[in-house]
Write a structure and sequence with these properties.
It is built from seven helices and 17 strands. The strands form four sheets. It has a seven-stranded mixed sheet. Strands 3-4-2-1-17-14 form a six-stranded mixed sheet. The two termini are about 40 Å apart.
Amino acid sequence: MKRLSLLFSIVAITLCLYAQQAYNKAVIGFYNLENLFDTLDDPNKNDEEFLPGGDYQWNTARYTAKLHALSKVISEMAKMDGGLVVLGVSEIENEQVLLDLAASELLHPYHLSVCHHESPDRRGVDVAFFYDASRFKIVSTRAFPTVVPNNPDFITRDQWLMTGVLDGVDTLDIVVNHWPSKSGGEQRSLPGRMAAGRLGRSIADSVLNSRPNAKFIYMGDLNDNPTSKCIMVEMGTKTKPEKLTPTDLYNPMWKLFRDGHGSYAYRDSWEMLDNIIISGALVNAAPGTYRFRTANIFRRDFMFTKTGSYMDYPYRTFAGGNYQGGYSDHLPVYIVLSR
């Protein structure tokens, strides 16, 4: 009887330690979903291409296939050590497409919640968050529009700030965004990204001035590499974790890009358009709280094109206007926090 009682005690202690260990890590990521549109005509959206009679012949079968493809990637991310707690996303038409994705067969077991914002984007695409509501409790949200000086007609996606508490331990301020593209040429489009960078710095300063040790995370498809002026100058990012002050902004994606890695392939070279930038307070966090450990690009063999002119590129939904039936033209990026 004593031996049985001892066995139960050991099992109970093991389970308790396992439960504690399971909540000692957290994965936070970003994924450009490459035009996740539904098949319904929205008069307030520029969705004509993504209709059954549109250029892309976007029908129920293709929409369902897209949901299944994306759910396969995200479900694999959810299996990483620490679990996927927050995933910022871009290029989504509305909240409903995210609810459909969360309810898909592969993602339904993870019970992901959606935090969505309707942006005034000309193409009609938004940014949003998936999050694990059992671990992350939202406190507040706020949208910030990007304004380009002397260009009152400029419109792009808002930058969407979500503040919440992770595992009842740490408050995280997380911004998801999708900077203006280089459509029309890099120099012509530069003012939009410069303005987006200044806005990102302004949001960070607002948060960090009110709470100097705030754990601030800025993520998104910035349509620029970590070495760009928009990121390094306008946002004032640092490239090395040594000697960071709590209010400094550190870009761990810089090292990945320097070493030849990227999240987006263009003209047979890799670019790091998808960035996750963090405050110094998250790098040098107090003991017993969450701190930054590592950053990486999420890659699995099935996410790459195997043949043809796009071989070894991310396996995308459309290439050259032709339907491929893949996942996305971007790879997800993520950071791991631990305590």
